[in-house]
Amino acid sequence: MNYISTRNKNIKVSAAQAISQGISKDGGLFVPETIPALTEADFNKLKSMSYVERAAFVLKLFLTDFTDEEIDYCVKGAYLGSFDNDNPAPLKNIGGNTNILELWHGPTCAFKDLALQLLPYLLTTSAKKVSGGKEIVILVATSGDTGKAALEGFCDVENTKIIVFYPNDGVSAMQKLQMDTQKGDNVFVCAINGNFDDAQTGVKKIFTDNSVAEILEKANMQFSSANSINWGRLAPQIIYYISAYCDMLKEGTDLSNGFNVVVPTGNFGNILAAYYAKVMGVPINKLICASNANNVLTDFINTGIYDRNRKFYTTISPSMDILISSNLERMLFEICGRDDKTVAALQADLNSNGKYTVSDEIANKFKDLFFGGCCDDEKTLSTIKDTFNNKDYLCDTHTAVAVNVYNNYVETTGDNRPAVIASTASPYKFANSVLEGIGEEICSDEFSTVEKLSSISGVPVPAPIDALKNASPRFNNVCEKQDMIKVVLKNLGL
Ligand SMILES: *Cc1c(COP(=O)(O)O)cnc(C)c1O
Protein backbone atom coordinates (compact mmCIF):
# COMPACT_ATOMS: atom_id res chain seq x y z
CA MET A 1 0.00 0.00 0.00
CA ASN A 2 1.44 3.34 -1.03
CA TYR A 3 0.61 6.83 0.20
CA ILE A 4 -0.08 9.79 -2.07
CA SER A 5 -0.16 13.54 -1.51
CA THR A 6 -3.54 15.30 -1.43
CA ARG A 7 -2.07 18.02 -3.68
CA ASN A 8 -0.28 15.79 -6.18
CA LYS A 9 -1.19 12.15 -6.67
CA ASN A 10 2.08 11.51 -8.50
CA ILE A 11 3.95 11.88 -5.23
CA LYS A 12 3.87 8.30 -3.98
CA VAL A 13 5.71 6.92 -0.93
CA SER A 14 5.64 3.87 1.35
CA ALA A 15 3.88 3.95 4.74
CA ALA A 16 7.24 4.12 6.51
CA GLN A 17 8.24 7.10 4.36
CA ALA A 18 4.90 8.87 4.91
CA ILE A 19 5.15 8.44 8.67
CA SER A 20 8.78 9.45 9.02
CA GLN A 21 8.32 12.47 6.76
CA GLY A 22 5.02 13.62 8.36
CA ILE A 23 3.94 15.95 5.55
CA SER A 24 4.49 15.78 1.78
CA LYS A 25 7.13 18.09 0.28
CA ASP A 26 4.46 19.94 -1.72
CA GLY A 27 2.64 20.82 1.51
CA GLY A 28 -0.05 18.18 0.90
CA LEU A 29 -1.02 15.46 3.36
CA PHE A 30 -0.40 11.77 2.81
CA VAL A 31 -3.39 9.46 2.35
CA PRO A 32 -3.47 5.74 1.55
CA GLU A 33 -3.74 5.00 -2.15
CA THR A 34 -6.84 2.92 -1.40
CA ILE A 35 -8.87 2.50 1.78
CA PRO A 36 -8.96 -1.18 2.78
CA ALA A 37 -12.39 -2.75 3.29
CA LEU A 38 -13.39 -4.98 6.20
CA THR A 39 -15.71 -7.91 5.45
CA GLU A 40 -18.36 -9.41 7.69
CA ALA A 41 -15.94 -12.28 8.38
CA ASP A 42 -13.32 -9.73 9.48
CA PHE A 43 -15.77 -8.10 11.90
CA ASN A 44 -16.65 -11.51 13.30
CA LYS A 45 -12.99 -12.13 14.02
CA LEU A 46 -12.44 -8.63 15.40
CA LYS A 47 -15.43 -8.99 17.72
CA SER A 48 -13.74 -11.60 19.89
CA MET A 49 -10.34 -9.88 19.96
CA SER A 50 -8.75 -7.70 22.64
CA TYR A 51 -8.04 -4.04 21.83
CA VAL A 52 -4.37 -4.80 21.15
CA GLU A 53 -5.31 -7.57 18.73
CA ARG A 54 -7.85 -5.35 16.98
CA ALA A 55 -5.21 -2.64 16.66
CA ALA A 56 -2.71 -5.04 15.09
CA PHE A 57 -5.34 -6.39 12.69
CA VAL A 58 -6.29 -2.93 11.44
CA LEU A 59 -2.75 -1.55 11.22
CA LYS A 60 -1.57 -4.48 9.14
CA LEU A 61 -4.02 -3.37 6.44
CA PHE A 62 -2.52 0.12 6.29
CA LEU A 63 1.17 -0.45 7.02
CA THR A 64 1.97 -3.17 4.53
CA ASP A 65 5.70 -2.46 4.59
CA PHE A 66 5.86 -3.34 8.31
CA THR A 67 6.34 -7.00 9.29
CA ASP A 68 3.74 -8.66 11.52
CA GLU A 69 6.38 -8.82 14.26
CA GLU A 70 7.02 -5.07 13.99
CA ILE A 71 3.33 -4.26 14.23
CA ASP A 72 2.84 -6.54 17.21
CA TYR A 73 5.83 -4.93 18.92
CA CYS A 74 4.40 -1.45 18.28
CA VAL A 75 0.85 -2.07 19.51
CA LYS A 76 1.91 -4.00 22.59
CA GLY A 77 4.41 -1.30 23.52
CA ALA A 78 1.75 1.37 23.09
CA TYR A 79 -1.31 -0.15 24.73
CA LEU A 80 -0.16 -2.66 27.34
CA GLY A 81 0.61 -1.05 30.67
CA SER A 82 0.22 2.66 29.94
CA PHE A 83 -3.59 2.91 30.23
CA ASP A 84 -5.58 2.61 33.45
CA ASN A 85 -8.04 0.24 31.80
CA ASP A 86 -7.58 -3.13 30.03
CA ASN A 87 -9.46 -1.62 27.12
CA PRO A 88 -7.89 1.78 26.32
CA ALA A 89 -11.18 2.89 24.69
CA PRO A 90 -14.12 1.63 26.78
CA LEU A 91 -17.70 2.34 25.71
CA LYS A 92 -20.15 3.41 28.45
CA ASN A 93 -23.89 3.53 27.98
CA ILE A 94 -25.43 6.56 29.70
CA GLY A 95 -29.02 5.56 29.09
CA GLY A 96 -31.14 4.89 26.03
CA ASN A 97 -29.19 4.74 22.80
CA THR A 98 -26.41 7.05 23.94
CA ASN A 99 -22.91 5.66 24.42
CA ILE A 100 -19.82 7.51 25.51
CA LEU A 101 -16.52 6.34 24.05
CA GLU A 102 -14.06 7.23 26.81
CA LEU A 103 -10.76 8.01 25.16
CA TRP A 104 -8.92 9.46 28.14
CA HIS A 105 -7.62 6.50 30.12
CA GLY A 106 -4.01 7.07 29.02
CA PRO A 107 -1.05 8.83 30.68
CA THR A 108 -2.15 12.40 29.85
CA CYS A 109 -5.91 11.89 30.27
CA ALA A 110 -6.88 12.99 26.76
CA PHE A 111 -7.77 11.05 23.62
CA LYS A 112 -4.51 11.97 21.92
CA ASP A 113 -2.77 9.29 23.99
CA LEU A 114 -4.44 6.62 21.84
CA ALA A 115 -2.40 7.86 18.89
CA LEU A 116 0.62 9.33 20.60
CA GLN A 117 1.49 6.29 22.68
CA LEU A 118 1.71 4.40 19.38
CA LEU A 119 3.29 7.02 17.10
CA PRO A 120 6.84 6.89 18.60
CA TYR A 121 6.92 3.15 17.91
CA LEU A 122 5.62 3.60 14.37
CA LEU A 123 8.00 6.48 13.75
CA THR A 124 11.19 4.86 15.05
CA THR A 125 10.34 1.64 13.20
CA SER A 126 9.70 3.67 10.02
CA ALA A 127 12.89 5.72 10.41
CA LYS A 128 14.99 2.55 10.66
CA LYS A 129 13.52 1.42 7.35
CA VAL A 130 13.85 4.62 5.36
CA SER A 131 16.17 7.20 6.85
CA GLY A 132 19.14 5.12 7.93
CA GLY A 133 19.79 6.19 11.49
CA LYS A 134 19.06 9.92 11.20
CA GLU A 135 17.98 11.57 14.43
CA ILE A 136 14.26 12.43 14.27
CA VAL A 137 13.28 15.88 15.50
CA ILE A 138 9.59 16.09 16.37
CA LEU A 139 8.10 19.58 16.11
CA VAL A 140 4.68 20.07 17.65
CA ALA A 141 2.22 22.93 17.67
CA THR A 142 -0.36 22.28 20.34
CA SER A 143 -3.62 23.68 21.61
CA GLY A 144 -2.80 21.85 24.85
CA ASP A 145 -3.40 18.14 24.70
CA THR A 146 -1.25 17.09 21.72
CA GLY A 147 1.82 18.68 23.27
CA LYS A 148 1.64 16.78 26.52
CA ALA A 149 0.64 13.52 24.88
CA ALA A 150 3.53 13.81 22.40
CA LEU A 151 6.02 14.72 25.16
CA GLU A 152 4.89 11.70 27.14
CA GLY A 153 5.04 9.41 24.09
CA PHE A 154 8.50 10.53 22.94
CA CYS A 155 10.06 11.06 26.38
CA ASP A 156 13.56 9.48 26.26
CA VAL A 157 12.79 7.54 23.06
CA GLU A 158 16.19 6.78 21.56
CA ASN A 159 17.32 8.80 18.54
CA THR A 160 14.50 11.35 18.85
CA LYS A 161 14.16 14.92 20.10
CA ILE A 162 10.88 16.71 20.65
CA ILE A 163 10.14 20.46 20.68
CA VAL A 164 6.66 21.67 21.62
CA PHE A 165 5.15 25.13 21.06
CA TYR A 166 1.90 26.17 22.76
CA PRO A 167 -0.10 29.45 22.80
CA ASN A 168 0.76 31.22 26.05
CA ASP A 169 -2.81 32.25 26.88
CA GLY A 170 -4.58 29.44 25.05
CA VAL A 171 -4.17 26.41 27.32
CA SER A 172 -5.64 25.52 30.71
CA ALA A 173 -3.60 25.83 33.90
CA MET A 174 -3.50 22.04 34.17
CA GLN A 175 -2.35 21.64 30.55
CA LYS A 176 0.39 24.22 31.07
CA LEU A 177 1.56 22.51 34.23
CA GLN A 178 1.50 19.12 32.52
CA MET A 179 3.80 20.38 29.76
CA ASP A 180 6.11 22.57 31.81
CA THR A 181 6.82 19.71 34.24
CA GLN A 182 7.62 17.16 31.52
CA LYS A 183 10.55 14.88 32.30
CA GLY A 184 13.06 13.52 29.79
CA ASP A 185 16.45 14.47 28.35
CA ASN A 186 15.22 14.89 24.76
CA VAL A 187 12.30 17.27 25.38
CA PHE A 188 11.89 21.07 25.04
CA VAL A 189 8.79 23.18 25.70
CA CYS A 190 8.18 26.81 24.67
CA ALA A 191 5.12 29.08 24.86
CA ILE A 192 4.52 31.57 22.04
CA ASN A 193 2.86 34.98 22.11
CA GLY A 194 0.06 34.08 19.71
CA ASN A 195 -2.80 31.64 19.32
CA PHE A 196 -2.84 27.99 18.23
CA ASP A 197 -3.14 28.83 14.54
CA ASP A 198 0.00 31.00 14.85
CA ALA A 199 1.84 28.08 16.43
CA GLN A 200 0.62 25.66 13.77
CA THR A 201 1.44 28.04 10.91
CA GLY A 202 4.92 28.59 12.38
CA VAL A 203 5.60 24.87 12.62
CA LYS A 204 4.35 24.25 9.08
CA LYS A 205 6.67 26.99 7.82
CA ILE A 206 9.69 25.41 9.50
CA PHE A 207 8.75 22.02 8.04
CA THR A 208 8.60 23.30 4.49
CA ASP A 209 11.65 25.60 4.68
CA ASN A 210 14.30 24.00 2.45
CA SER A 211 17.20 25.93 3.93
CA VAL A 212 16.34 24.69 7.43
CA ALA A 213 15.98 21.14 6.07
CA GLU A 214 19.51 21.39 4.62
CA ILE A 215 20.96 22.51 7.94
CA LEU A 216 19.38 19.50 9.62
CA GLU A 217 20.47 17.13 6.86
CA LYS A 218 24.11 18.15 7.43
CA ALA A 219 23.72 17.39 11.12
CA ASN A 220 22.22 13.97 10.27
CA MET A 221 18.82 15.05 11.61
CA GLN A 222 15.35 15.09 10.08
CA PHE A 223 12.11 16.78 11.07
CA SER A 224 8.93 14.85 11.58
CA SER A 225 5.50 15.74 12.82
CA ALA A 226 3.46 14.40 15.71
CA ASN A 227 0.51 16.61 14.73
CA SER A 228 -2.48 14.90 13.22
CA ILE A 229 -1.22 15.77 9.75
CA ASN A 230 0.99 12.67 10.24
CA TRP A 231 -0.69 9.48 8.97
CA GLY A 232 0.85 7.70 11.96
CA ARG A 233 -1.49 9.77 14.15
CA LEU A 234 -4.61 9.06 12.15
CA ALA A 235 -4.33 5.31 11.65
CA PRO A 236 -4.46 4.61 15.42
CA GLN A 237 -7.62 6.71 15.68
CA ILE A 238 -9.49 4.61 13.13
CA ILE A 239 -9.00 1.60 15.40
CA TYR A 240 -11.17 2.82 18.26
CA TYR A 241 -14.20 3.46 16.06
CA ILE A 242 -13.91 -0.07 14.71
CA SER A 243 -13.44 -1.31 18.27
CA ALA A 244 -16.51 0.58 19.53
CA TYR A 245 -18.58 -1.00 16.75
CA CYS A 246 -17.30 -4.46 17.71
CA ASP A 247 -18.13 -3.82 21.37
CA MET A 248 -21.70 -2.87 20.42
CA LEU A 249 -22.01 -5.96 18.22
CA LYS A 250 -20.85 -8.05 21.15
CA GLU A 251 -23.44 -6.51 23.42
CA GLY A 252 -26.19 -7.19 20.92
CA THR A 253 -27.03 -3.52 20.26
CA ASP A 254 -29.51 -3.23 17.39
CA LEU A 255 -27.38 -1.74 14.62
CA SER A 256 -29.61 -2.65 11.69
CA ASN A 257 -29.87 1.04 10.75
CA GLY A 258 -26.29 1.82 11.65
CA PHE A 259 -25.26 4.30 14.31
CA ASN A 260 -24.28 7.95 14.55
CA VAL A 261 -20.90 9.22 15.69
CA VAL A 262 -20.47 12.53 17.47
CA VAL A 263 -17.02 14.15 17.68
CA PRO A 264 -15.93 17.37 19.40
CA THR A 265 -13.78 18.72 16.62
CA GLY A 266 -10.80 21.05 16.22
CA ASN A 267 -8.26 20.01 13.62
CA PHE A 268 -10.72 17.51 12.08
CA GLY A 269 -8.42 14.54 12.78
CA ASN A 270 -10.64 12.58 15.13
CA ILE A 271 -13.79 12.89 13.01
CA LEU A 272 -11.81 12.10 9.85
CA ALA A 273 -10.73 8.82 11.48
CA ALA A 274 -14.43 8.01 12.01
CA TYR A 275 -15.05 8.75 8.33
CA TYR A 276 -12.30 6.32 7.31
CA ALA A 277 -13.82 3.68 9.63
CA LYS A 278 -17.11 4.23 7.79
CA VAL A 279 -15.45 3.78 4.41
CA MET A 280 -13.84 0.57 5.69
CA GLY A 281 -17.28 -0.85 6.41
CA VAL A 282 -18.33 0.28 9.90
CA PRO A 283 -22.05 1.14 9.52
CA ILE A 284 -21.80 4.78 10.58
CA ASN A 285 -24.80 6.85 9.54
CA LYS A 286 -24.17 10.55 10.28
CA LEU A 287 -20.86 12.05 11.32
CA ILE A 288 -21.85 14.78 13.76
CA CYS A 289 -19.22 17.49 13.89
CA ALA A 290 -19.39 19.53 17.11
CA SER A 291 -17.60 22.88 17.46
CA ASN A 292 -17.35 25.51 20.19
CA ALA A 293 -17.66 29.27 19.50
CA ASN A 294 -14.91 28.86 16.90
CA ASN A 295 -17.54 27.46 14.56
CA VAL A 296 -15.72 27.67 11.25
CA LEU A 297 -16.55 24.00 10.53
CA THR A 298 -20.25 24.37 11.37
CA ASP A 299 -20.49 27.21 8.86
CA PHE A 300 -18.53 25.25 6.28
CA ILE A 301 -20.76 22.18 6.55
CA ASN A 302 -23.87 24.34 6.34
CA THR A 303 -22.78 26.69 3.54
CA GLY A 304 -19.82 25.21 1.63
CA ILE A 305 -17.78 28.31 2.46
CA TYR A 306 -14.71 27.88 4.62
CA ASP A 307 -13.73 31.25 6.02
CA ARG A 308 -11.14 31.68 8.74
CA ASN A 309 -11.38 35.48 8.61
CA ARG A 310 -13.37 35.85 11.79
CA LYS A 311 -12.97 36.57 15.45
CA PHE A 312 -10.94 33.98 17.33
CA TYR A 313 -12.45 33.00 20.69
CA THR A 314 -10.53 31.64 23.66
CA THR A 315 -13.00 29.18 25.16
CA ILE A 316 -13.28 26.70 28.03
CA SER A 317 -12.73 23.91 25.47
CA PRO A 318 -9.30 25.17 24.36
CA SER A 319 -8.28 22.06 22.40
CA MET A 320 -10.96 23.02 19.88
CA ASP A 321 -9.97 26.69 19.58
CA ILE A 322 -8.88 26.31 15.99
CA LEU A 323 -9.75 28.21 12.82
CA ILE A 324 -7.63 26.22 10.37
CA SER A 325 -8.61 22.56 10.55
CA SER A 326 -5.66 20.89 8.83
CA ASN A 327 -7.23 17.49 8.31
CA LEU A 328 -10.17 18.91 6.43
CA GLU A 329 -7.76 18.82 3.48
CA ARG A 330 -7.86 15.00 3.53
CA MET A 331 -11.66 15.07 3.69
CA LEU A 332 -11.84 17.46 0.73
CA PHE A 333 -9.57 15.11 -1.22
CA GLU A 334 -11.91 12.19 -0.56
CA ILE A 335 -15.13 14.10 -1.16
CA CYS A 336 -14.06 15.60 -4.45
CA GLY A 337 -13.24 12.15 -5.80
CA ARG A 338 -9.53 12.39 -4.99
CA ASP A 339 -9.08 15.30 -7.36
CA ASP A 340 -5.64 16.64 -6.33
CA LYS A 341 -5.88 19.74 -8.57
CA THR A 342 -9.08 20.91 -6.88
CA VAL A 343 -7.56 20.36 -3.43
CA ALA A 344 -4.37 22.22 -4.36
CA ALA A 345 -6.44 25.15 -5.69
CA LEU A 346 -8.66 25.31 -2.59
CA GLN A 347 -5.66 25.16 -0.24
CA ALA A 348 -3.98 27.92 -2.26
CA ASP A 349 -7.12 30.05 -1.75
CA LEU A 350 -6.99 29.32 1.96
CA ASN A 351 -3.32 30.29 2.16
CA SER A 352 -3.73 33.57 0.30
CA ASN A 353 -7.26 34.69 1.29
CA GLY A 354 -7.99 32.64 4.39
CA LYS A 355 -11.06 31.38 2.59
CA TYR A 356 -12.41 29.03 -0.05
CA THR A 357 -15.77 28.06 -1.51
CA VAL A 358 -16.48 24.53 -2.73
CA SER A 359 -18.82 23.65 -5.60
CA ASP A 360 -22.49 22.92 -4.86
CA GLU A 361 -21.86 19.27 -5.63
CA ILE A 362 -19.11 19.01 -3.00
CA ALA A 363 -21.10 21.07 -0.50
CA ASN A 364 -24.07 18.71 -0.87
CA LYS A 365 -21.87 15.67 -0.35
CA PHE A 366 -20.60 17.23 2.87
CA LYS A 367 -24.18 17.79 4.02
CA ASP A 368 -25.07 14.16 3.29
CA LEU A 369 -22.22 12.81 5.37
CA PHE A 370 -22.02 15.39 8.16
CA PHE A 371 -24.19 17.32 10.54
CA GLY A 372 -22.45 20.45 11.82
CA GLY A 373 -23.39 22.15 15.08
CA CYS A 374 -21.79 24.38 17.70
CA CYS A 375 -22.30 25.75 21.18
CA ASP A 376 -20.82 28.57 23.27
CA ASP A 377 -19.28 28.38 26.74
CA GLU A 378 -22.55 29.09 28.54
CA LYS A 379 -24.29 26.17 26.85
CA THR A 380 -21.23 23.99 27.43
CA LEU A 381 -21.52 24.65 31.17
CA SER A 382 -25.26 23.99 31.27
CA THR A 383 -24.73 20.74 29.36
CA ILE A 384 -22.16 19.60 31.95
CA LYS A 385 -24.79 20.30 34.62
CA ASP A 386 -27.67 18.56 32.83
CA THR A 387 -25.58 15.52 31.95
CA PHE A 388 -24.39 15.21 35.53
CA ASN A 389 -27.83 15.69 37.07
CA ASN A 390 -29.90 13.68 34.60
CA LYS A 391 -27.49 11.01 33.33
CA ASP A 392 -25.23 10.76 36.34
CA TYR A 393 -22.26 11.28 34.04
CA LEU A 394 -19.49 13.82 34.58
CA CYS A 395 -18.03 15.07 31.31
CA ASP A 396 -15.26 17.51 30.46
CA THR A 397 -15.84 20.73 28.52
CA HIS A 398 -14.97 19.25 25.09
CA THR A 399 -17.20 16.23 25.53
CA ALA A 400 -19.96 18.57 26.71
CA VAL A 401 -19.83 20.45 23.41
CA ALA A 402 -20.40 17.13 21.64
CA VAL A 403 -23.26 16.17 23.98
CA ASN A 404 -24.91 19.55 23.43
CA VAL A 405 -24.69 19.36 19.64
CA TYR A 406 -25.90 15.76 19.72
CA ASN A 407 -28.96 16.71 21.77
CA ASN A 408 -29.73 19.41 19.21
CA TYR A 409 -29.29 16.94 16.41
CA VAL A 410 -31.80 14.51 17.93
CA GLU A 411 -34.24 17.35 18.55
CA THR A 412 -34.06 18.75 15.02
CA THR A 413 -33.96 15.44 13.12
CA GLY A 414 -35.74 12.95 15.40
CA ASP A 415 -32.96 10.51 14.47
CA ASN A 416 -32.77 8.27 17.48
CA ARG A 417 -30.53 5.46 16.31
CA PRO A 418 -27.66 4.38 18.59
CA ALA A 419 -24.96 7.01 19.02
CA VAL A 420 -21.32 6.96 19.99
CA ILE A 421 -20.09 10.23 21.46
CA ALA A 422 -16.32 10.59 21.56
CA SER A 423 -15.28 11.73 25.03
CA THR A 424 -11.92 13.35 24.46
CA ALA A 425 -10.67 14.37 27.90
CA SER A 426 -11.00 13.53 31.57
CA PRO A 427 -13.13 16.10 33.42
CA TYR A 428 -10.18 16.60 35.79
CA LYS A 429 -8.10 18.15 33.04
CA PHE A 430 -10.54 21.07 33.02
CA ALA A 431 -11.61 20.86 36.65
CA ASN A 432 -12.35 24.58 37.16
CA SER A 433 -14.86 24.76 34.33
CA VAL A 434 -16.41 21.40 35.15
CA LEU A 435 -16.91 22.34 38.80
CA GLU A 436 -18.40 25.67 37.75
CA GLY A 437 -20.61 23.75 35.32
CA ILE A 438 -22.16 21.62 38.03
CA GLY A 439 -22.90 24.78 39.96
CA GLU A 440 -20.18 24.77 42.61
CA GLU A 441 -17.65 27.42 43.67
CA ILE A 442 -14.14 26.81 42.40
CA CYS A 443 -11.24 26.85 44.87
CA SER A 444 -8.25 29.18 44.88
CA ASP A 445 -5.87 26.49 43.67
CA GLU A 446 -6.28 23.91 40.93
CA PHE A 447 -5.69 20.86 43.10
CA SER A 448 -8.25 21.78 45.75
CA THR A 449 -10.71 22.17 42.89
CA VAL A 450 -9.80 18.69 41.66
CA GLU A 451 -10.37 17.21 45.11
CA LYS A 452 -13.65 19.03 45.57
CA LEU A 453 -14.87 17.84 42.19
CA SER A 454 -13.98 14.28 43.12
CA SER A 455 -15.73 14.38 46.48
CA ILE A 456 -18.91 15.79 44.93
CA SER A 457 -19.02 13.55 41.86
CA GLY A 458 -17.56 10.35 43.32
CA VAL A 459 -15.44 10.01 40.15
CA PRO A 460 -11.85 9.12 41.10
CA VAL A 461 -9.00 11.49 40.15
CA PRO A 462 -6.75 9.92 37.47
CA ALA A 463 -3.30 9.05 38.85
CA PRO A 464 -1.35 11.23 36.33
CA ILE A 465 -3.30 14.34 37.44
CA ASP A 466 -2.85 13.52 41.11
CA ALA A 467 0.91 13.15 40.56
CA LEU A 468 1.20 16.71 39.19
CA LYS A 469 0.55 18.08 42.66
CA ASN A 470 4.13 17.39 43.66
CA ALA A 471 5.86 18.10 40.33
CA SER A 472 7.78 21.35 39.77
CA PRO A 473 8.05 23.13 36.39
CA ARG A 474 11.25 22.59 34.36
CA PHE A 475 10.36 25.00 31.55
CA ASN A 476 9.24 28.63 31.51
CA ASN A 477 10.20 29.71 27.96
CA VAL A 478 8.19 32.23 25.92
CA CYS A 479 8.99 33.46 22.38
CA GLU A 480 7.47 35.62 19.62
CA LYS A 481 5.81 33.70 16.80
CA GLN A 482 8.34 34.92 14.21
CA ASP A 483 11.21 33.59 16.36
CA MET A 484 10.16 29.93 16.36
CA ILE A 485 12.83 28.94 13.79
CA LYS A 486 15.56 30.48 15.93
CA VAL A 487 14.30 28.68 19.02
CA VAL A 488 14.35 25.35 17.17
CA LEU A 489 17.85 25.76 15.72
CA LYS A 490 19.28 26.98 19.00
CA ASN A 491 17.76 24.08 20.88
CA LEU A 492 19.26 21.62 18.39
CA GLY A 493 22.67 23.29 18.74
CA LEU A 494 22.67 24.33 15.04
C1 LIG B 1 -7.42 17.61 20.25
C2 LIG B 1 -8.68 17.59 20.99
C3 LIG B 1 -9.91 17.73 20.34
C4 LIG B 1 -10.01 17.99 18.85
O1 LIG B 1 -9.61 16.87 18.10
P1 LIG B 1 -9.25 17.04 16.55
O2 LIG B 1 -8.73 15.71 16.12
O3 LIG B 1 -8.20 18.11 16.49
O4 LIG B 1 -10.49 17.43 15.84
C5 LIG B 1 -11.06 17.65 21.09
N1 LIG B 1 -11.01 17.45 22.43
C6 LIG B 1 -9.85 17.32 23.09
C7 LIG B 1 -9.87 17.13 24.57
C8 LIG B 1 -8.64 17.37 22.40
O5 LIG B 1 -7.50 17.23 23.07
What would you say this structure looks like, in words?
α4 runs antiparallel to α6. The model has no long low-confidence stretch (mean pLDDT 95). The protein is globular. The two termini are 36 Å apart. It is an alpha/beta fold and 494 residues long. The longest helix is centred in the middle third of the chain and has 21 residues, at 231-251. The strands form four sheets. The protein has a six-stranded mixed beta sheet with strand order 4-5-15-10-11-14, with helices on both faces. The chain is 47% helix and 17% strand. It has a domain at 84-110 and 232-468: Rossmann fold. The site of pyridoxal-5'-phosphate (PLP) has 16 residues, from α12.
Give the ligands present: pyridoxal-5'-phosphate
Which second-level CATH architecture of the domain at 84-110 and 232-468 applies? Answer: 3-Layer(aba) Sandwich
Class from secondary-structure proportions: alpha/beta
What integer is the average pLDDT?
95
Terminal-residue CA separation = 36 Å
CATH class term of the domain at 84-110 and 232-468: Alpha Beta
The fraction of residues in strands falls at 15-25%
Number of DSSP strand runs: 16
Q: Uncertain spans, ≥5 residues at pLDDT below 50?
A: none
Q: How is the largest sheet built, in terms of strand order? A: 4-5-15-10-11-14
Quickly count the helices.
22
- Integer-rounded radius of gyration: 21 Å
Helix share, percent? 40-55%
Main β-sheet description:
6 strands, mixed
CATH fold title of the domain at 84-110 and 232-468: Rossmann fold
| Outline | globular
